[in-house]
Amino acid sequence: MSVYTVKQMARLSGVSVRALHHYDAIGLLKPRAVGANGYRYYDRQDLLRLQQILFHRALETPLKDIQAALDQPGFDLAAALRAQRERLAAQAERYARLVDVVDRTLADLEGDETMDDKHLFEGFDPEKQARHEAWLVEHYGDEATRRIADAKAGMKSWGKKDWSQFQEEAKAIEHDLAKALTQGLPVDSAPVTAIMRRHWAWVGRSWNREPTPDAFAGLGHLYQANPEFTARYEAIAPGLTEYFSEAMRAFARGR
């Protein structure tokens, strides 16, 4: 049976050493053995458990729920894989629709065809947006209701190009911040501060007004508290949610 060190496990899976250490610390993925030299050693069963963790992350399952699912008595790996395949297939179908919308929107912008406005949002999940808004109102009350109304009022006049740029900038910010995380950059370093400056502007555009430092820091707390945000960021890079939140608070302190 093959045995892997934490570095070998990281290279094999694409999961960072830092994330594997974190999974060990919270009990989500303990190494099969720890040598006298302090090295962690993993076997194939650990590989399969890590694969399960990654499948759950792809399905936006919070880490605490992943651990509960994997540690339940009588856990059946084959049954879990079949259920995950069904859910991933449904997601693949939805993403295929989104790709089609992207292609048709690009064709419209480039003048190759005319796209009816009613088709702009095919493939998006209105139920998820409704859940997100309900969570905000439940946890933040009237202030959240006002913020949602302001955001919707500001976005009402957006055209296709506005939406495309807004979404692309969000992805670019997440990508660049995940890269900074993997490089081990401090949250108050110059490169991360530059990313947060872009995020500050992005949030202001979303809210239809510039955020206050307290509101920006509070949004960082929300990212950690809301399971859908957490699932999104952890799927990009393990530890990104906490890093994102800390970077936002560091930036807010400097305003």
Q: Could you describe the 3D structure shown?
A:
By secondary structure, the chain is an all-alpha fold. It folds into 4 domains: 4-71, Orthogonal Bundle (Multidrug-efflux Transporter Regulator, Chain: A, Domain 2), CATH 1.10.1660; 82-124; 127-156, no CATH class; 160-254, Globin-like. The protein is 71% helix and 3% strand. The protein contains 11 helices and 3 strands; from the N terminus they run E-H-H-E-E-H-H-H-H-H-H-H-H-H. The protein has helices spanning 6-13, 17-25, 44-58, 63-70, 77-109, 126-155, 160-182, 190-207, 213-225, 227-236, 240-253, and strands at 4-5, 33-34, 40-42. It has a 3-stranded antiparallel beta sheet. Helix 9 packs across helix 10. The relative contact order is 0.09. The model has no long low-confidence stretch (mean pLDDT 81).
Helix proportion: over 70%
What is the CATH homologous superfamily assignment of the largest domain? Antibiotic binding domain of TipA-like multidrug resistance regulators
Low-confidence stretches: none
Largest sheet: 3 strands, antiparallel
GO molecular function, one term: DNA-binding transcription factor activity
Protein name: HTH-type transcriptional regulator SkgA
Pfam families: MerR_1, TipAS
InterPro entries: DNA-bd_dom_put_sf, MerR-type_HTH_dom, MerR_fam, TipA-like_antibiotic-bd, TipAS_dom
